[in-house]
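Lecture 7, part B: from sequences to assemblies.

Below are the input chains for today's worked example.
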Amino acid sequence: MPADVPRPVPGPVEAPFWEWCARHELRLPRCADCATFRFPPRPRCHVCRSAAYTWEPVAGTGTVASYTVISPPVLPAFADRVPYNAVVVELDEGPFLVSNLLDVANEDLATGMRVEVTFVDVADGFALHQFRPVVTTEAAT
Amino acid sequence: MSGHEVDLVSRRSAIAGIGQTPYAKNLGRSELDLACEAIIAACDDAGFPVPEVDGIVSYHVEQVSEEALVHALGLDNCSFMARTTSGGGGAASVVGLAAIAVASGQAESVVAFRARNRSKGASYGADPNQGGRPWEKVGAGATDSKQWHHPFGVAAPAQEMALIARRHMHLFGTTAEQFGMQAVAQRFHASRNPHAIMREAITLDDWRNARMIADPIRLVDCSLENDGATAVLVTTPERARDLAQPVVTVLAQAMGAGPIHVSLADYFRRSSSFHDHDFAGRHIAKQVFARAGLTPADVDVAMIFDHFSMAVPLSLEQYGFCGIGAGGPMIESGATRWPAGGLPVNTHGGSNGEAFIHGVNHVPEAVRQLRATSTAQVEGAAVALVTGAITDPAGAVLLGRG
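Predicted structure of the full complex, as structure tokens:
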């Protein structure tokens, strides 16, 4: 992972997400009133409008909802990686995340793949959540 | 409740004039210069005196200010100014907002326009809201919604749209070739249009050989990067009847909220099945057809926002021209290809053929169809649909002959 990957500049509502990532833990804001996960982080619950939430750990497992293989033109930090994948993962708890899938050749990418989170340290205090295939025969959901 | 039971807008305004600059890779002119030319052309087309323009509707990310236009064109009567929302989602809503202003008496004669100076070497703005070539504008830090995309190498609209397109392929068996067939059809339409930047038709083999940008999207599926401006003049039906051109009535307009492609986590949460009732296109379609008292079967020709060819089948589904998931086969059937198709789409060549004026160049083509002056004329065209981007909060208008 090149060190010049664009670094998140979060606002106060989003900052804890990246702080947990730096500790290699995937946590999402969850409504303290109706228990709905809120991602991307927002100041209010989209279901019950509550302002109260806590940062809850999630299992880190999910399914590839979509993928692409990206060719130039790309961000400078990714120029040496082309063609590289990007995925949308549907976490088992419901929220969707954009990420990359490690350890899979581009021609082997598929929707429905079961994946789990892993963290890659990019720079001091900055780790990115990435995903890799779950090595079991568990059926895709 | 959304108030459409008391609709004061439908059939209460008309497009009286259309104008455009040349469209080209690099015109070497400012966006203000281009906007002025297109607006004057729209007024000249209508036989309408420029100083009588009393309203300006601008595109969400337009760089030409209302103030600059007022001074440059002497629009001292200007009494209404407004902007659309959400980038390409508002492409058709420049007409919708103008119609609202005219029908409600806030202005009599409103110009709606978009100007772009987008060639790679030109003076395209550094403002991140301009869009431009996002991968060339990204600094070291990713703020706001960008923090959920850019660290993973997702920074260009094509890359975001590829993830939406692949989801559609996964759920419905849509093929990349079906997207390509729309790209090919539009390039054929463009080959007949002397105003188009891309005058050479392409084959599906050309599409297969085109460079991959973000699988499944190839170069020829993408909108062009170009310069140019487009404008229309919207006025009262009474005034329009006294002007130079056949009247094109704004039958109805509608807008709808919904997820946007620059925040894919939201987009997938709300629309991962494409069936969700709150998907903007479904909401807009329901309202725009109800307000016009029409159904999709009444539409003779459609100008669909096509930042990428995949947006056409997705839009056809959401607007009710086929079932959800059936957009790919509809393209493959040839339905959207002039002259044999039952619903020719983007008969000027669209954003990969004529030009990318952020979808606003689709409005004059709908007007030309209803005046029977298109270079790919649908015989007897009486009703045209123009839509904003299906991947944004958006809007649409239905236009009618006479």
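Note for the exam: Chain A is about 5% helix and 35% strand. Keep this in mind when comparing with the next example.
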